[in-house]
Structure formats: structure tokens, C-alpha cells
Fold this sequence. Notes:
This protein is mainly beta. It is 11% helix and 54% strand. The chain has an eight-stranded antiparallel sheet with strand order 4-3-2-1-8-7-6-5, with no helix packed on it. The model is unreliable at 1-16 (pLDDT under 50).
Amino acid sequence: MFKVSLALLATVIVSGCATTFKFDSEYQTVNDAEQYGDVSANVTRIQGGGFSASSTSTYMEVFIRDELVLKAPVSPDYTGEYYFLYHGEPVTIDCIQPALFIPAPECKVMINGKRAGLLTFELQK
């Protein structure tokens, strides 16, 4: 019984706890880009715990008109460019971290070579 309890306790200590941070977006359209509909995105960062090693995975989900159009990994500083097709039209999402102490990205959205809007993110409460 003691060995089983000790093994269970060791497993709990080593596994630790995972922490999840989720950022939701607000979308501001530019020019006459309303024709493409609403664009939204979520950025989720999962940090694993434990004494042996910490792993972190971050990914972004992008929706156009409530349809999931992209799910991709994100760099630790939330920057990067994403390219995909939406109903045959090229879409580019270019993400930057606007300031050193702002932990969430800003992403310019371009559809068919025209600037369509800006995604800004806020930590979900």
C-alpha cells in the first residue's frame, strides 16, 4: 500500500499542472472590406508544469463568417505570417507584438491583396 501511495504521489508531483492562457480577438474592418464578413481569431497558449521539464504550445484559430479557416502553431512571441485560401481568394494574416510589455499580438488581415482589417487580442477572463 505504501509503495502504491508513494508512486501515485510521485506521479502527481512530476506531472504538475498545466496552465492555459486564451486571447480573444476584436476585428476592425478597413475600407469596403465588409463584403468578406466578420473575421475572428483565438490564440491559445498551454504551458505544461512539472519539475522535469516545461513544455509550451501556442496555436491560433482563425474564423471567417464563423467558419474555421486556419489552425496553426504560433511562435512564442506571437509574431509571424500566415497564408491560406478562403473560397479561392488568398488571405494573409501578418502578426506582430506591438510593444515589449503588451503580451498579445496585433494581426493585419489582407484578403485578395487588399487590406481588410486588423485583429487585436485581449486576454480572456
